[in-house]
Amino acid sequence: MNDADTLFERIIAREIPADIVYETDTTLAFRDIKPQAKTHVLVVPKQRYRNVAELAAADPRLLADVITSAHKVAELEGLTENGYRVVFNTDVHAGQTVFHVHAHVLGGEQLGFFGRYTGEAG
């Protein structure tokens, strides 16, 4: 892993401002600057791991903290009644652009399907 700080590490260190929604000892949640839904919040562990696979292998408890924080964000944002989505993009082909694992919490409106559209139900 590159020694250079990622954007998220700079947000965690409060070097870059962010609209913080929720924080614990191990996680930080803040609004995405390019939202893909009415509500779009990123949940990041304060300790850096490249992606969710690396985090799961190294620290399952921290991964659980990220998921717990994602659910708390959904509660705070009023998403639990109608539903919400939690997404981890893992590496370039999945659309990961910041290589510090993060969960996207999306909701607040009817969400479409995701992935490549095939025209088939399922």
Automatic annotation (TrEMBL):
UniProt xrefs under Gene3D superfamilies: HIT-like
Annotated PROSITE patterns: HIT_2
GO molecular function, one term: catalytic activity
Source superkingdom: Bacteria
Entries under Pfam families matching the protein: HIT
Record protein name field: Histidine triad nucleotide-binding protein
Organism for this UniProt entry: Prauserella muralis
Species lineage: Bacteria, Bacillati, Actinomycetota, Actinomycetes, Pseudonocardiales
